[in-house]
Amino acid sequence: MKLRFPVLLCAALLAAPVAQPAFAQSPRDLLSPPADLPRAERGKPTYSLDTLFAALKIAPDEASAKAIENRISAAWIESGSDTCDLLMTRVKDAIEEKDYDLAIRLLDSIIAIKPGYVEAWNQRATVYYLKDDYPHAVADIAEVLAREPRQFGALAGLGLMLQDIGDDKDALEAYRRALAIDPHLESIPDVVKTLTEKVEGRDI
């Protein structure tokens, strides 16, 4: 049985302005970043997120877009704190072992140490989703999007949860926002097409 959904919070998230300047596979896969991501070498120049998102918009093919998406995810994962990085490693292990309560306790500690670390909020939203605790998951997605409106995984997760509770109209809006950020998403265009026909009807 699904929990009662925080409708007002969801509406506020979708009413927020879309950031103008990623995802692959299914919406469910987008709740967590890929396991193998590039890491910037020490002393090497790195690209800003703004530059990466601008490049993502004009990526010439899917392979290029995927490489840029991975760089963006890698940048988000970097906490800047050895303690947080260690705890995040333990979070990953706890999730793999399906010990979601432990994962949440670890993420609580990370957020207490570094509340501006977006990926900790995003991971906790993921764990709450896995526990079918949608109210807490959406609350954490709100924290993610407040700090990084371009977080495509959070938008995908929001769309997925909205679909789960039968709110296809708002799910469609969440997916469209994700596509506005990254036009190269693999499966989301098909989901958007299906929901558009369901919500808005077929073109005559």
Short description:
The protein is mainly α. Helix content is 64%, strand content 0%.
Describe this structure in words.
This protein is mainly α and 204 residues long. The protein is built from ten helices and no strands. Helix 2 (49-57) packs antiparallel against helix 3 (62-77) and helix 4 runs antiparallel to helix 5 (100-113). It is globular and about 50 Å long. The relative contact order is 0.17.
What is the element layout, followed by pairings?
Layout: H1 7-15, H2 49-57, H3 62-77, H4 82-96, H5 100-113, H6 118-130, H7 134-147, H8 152-164, H9 168-181, H10 188-200
Helix pairs in contact: 2-3, 4-5, 5-6, 6-7, 6-8, 7-8, 8-9, 9-10
Work out the helicity level.
55-70%
C-alpha-based Rg, rounded: 17 Å
Shape: globular
Report low-confidence residues grouped into runs of 5 or more. 1-8, 17-27, 30-34, 40-45
Largest sheet: none
> Strand-residue fraction?
under 5%
Please give the number of β-strands: 0
What is the overall pLDDT average? 82
Query: What's the tally of helices?
Result: 10
Order of helices and strands: HHHHHHHHHH
Question: CA-to-CA gap between the ends?
Answer: 38 Å
The chain-level structural class is mainly alpha
